[in-house]
Fold this sequence. Notes:
The protein is an alpha/beta fold. The protein has two domains: 74-285 and 459-487, no CATH class; 303-453, Glycogen Phosphorylase B (Rossmann fold, 3-Layer(aba) Sandwich). Helix content is 38%, strand content 10%. The chain is built from 17 helices and ten strands. The protein has helices at residues 7-30, 39-59, 67-70, 77-84, 116-120, 157-165, 187-192, 201-215, 219-224, 292-303, 326-334, 352-360, 377-383, 417-421, 427-432, 436-453, 469-487; strands at 105-107, 180-182, 229-236, 264-269, 278-280, 309-315, 339-343, 362-367, 387-390, 413-414. The chain has a five-stranded parallel beta sheet with strand order 1-2-3-4-5. A five-stranded parallel beta sheet has the order 7-6-8-9-10, sandwiched between helices. Helix 1 (7-30) runs antiparallel to helix 2 (39-59). It is globular.
Amino acid sequence: MTILIPFSIQTSLNSLSLSLKLLKSWRRLSMEKPKPINVSSKIWFACSTFFFIWVLLLCSLSSKTSLITLFPSFSNLKSIFIEENRVDQQFKETDHDESCSGRYIYVHNLPAQFNIDILKNCTALNKWFDMCEPLLNMGLGKETSKQGWYATNQFTLEIIFQNRMNQYDCLTRNSSLATAIYVPYYAGLDVGRYLFGKIDVSVRDKNVVDLVNWLTKQPEWKRVYGIDHFFIGGRVTWDFRRQSDEQSGWGNKLFITPEIRNMTALIIEKNPLDNKLEVAIPYPSYFHPSNSNEIINWQNEVRNVNPEFLFSFVGSPRPNDNTSIRDELINQCLNSIHCRLLDCNDFKCDDPFFVIQAFSKSKFCLQPSGDSYTRRSTFDAILSGCVPVFFHPMSAYGQYVWHLPKNHSSYSVLINETEVKEGKVNIEEVLGKIPEIEVMAMREEVVKLIPKLVYANPMKMPEKGLEDAFEIAVKGVLERIKERKENN
Length: 488
């Protein structure tokens, strides 16, 4: 098995190496023979000294911090990911290919305001962490030591999807042939800039208003008024559903805008009550294969792991949320020798190595609701061959209908959330009573799901016929649009 070096360790080594180089340079300078200096030289010397000390201190910070995120403006990082994400579509040589009948997609050439320009100030895309590194490698994030594995952020699906769309085998320049019209608007990255802080609603809604104005002027819109249009939402539905224009309202009004509601939104978490606009598709996880051999090899690695723990939980407590059952799950895990706990408060959950290792060593992985119904962790668990344990049906069953089996009990377990909250359920007892032969069958079903839930590497031309999460989503949206046109 290939050894996966923790992402955080790689960052630490890089920072340490740079610190040593700076220290050697400083030492060499300090040993030079002093020369007479004037006042301005003294000021320059004091400033440069402060700068060197500051850099050394920053380099010795936690391994979670790297110079590339501390000084994005001093690197060429921005120009790299902007260049990576320029549209480079693979159009069909002919618009009369029988294999593309009913599958043609036309991509709107949106003004840069709605995608590339959003990426330019990458440090402002999220209040809590720098998004510059996660945008690298066409949205896959920084590459790890294991081939096909990246430190992928859960909010970069819009970029990954567009770059996979650029490889789609039935793109057309002739919109009249297209069954579907793809709108490459980075909706989640756009609204994510304004979710925290006192941002005026007019600022939050500007791109929504401008997008509607632009789309409705296009001839493609006027044919069926957006019914054949679709876009990606890389955040949960609640970030796009502000119900009023009060400053205290959350997010923007994208999903309640009438014109947008004619379209289809493929989103990482949908509103359970909204089947007109939204369809949920998987969060991006860490594995991005380019061919079936990479997938088969990983599936075999997962099958060969002998889990040490009955169940595990990867996450952090929600002490200020009275509705959350996380504290109860954490307490039960800590009190069981059969549970593996990975506390996300110490940033280990930012490292693919630690997350996948924790899940792969467990038969079952607890998946309580996060800040909303769903968690990216569900897909990390399945990727690791771990059977997900849900506590609410909308955490998966009512969400990913195109990607997950209708027979929910074949690959997962559902435990009543209310009973857990009331202390009526012992997780270890419930899971321990499941016969081993059933556990093995569920784990095998989980392993079989892996190809359908990963997004293939957009930096390499995927193997023809590889049906990843992107291909399933595209197939689903084409069928949905055809049905909507017929019923219109």
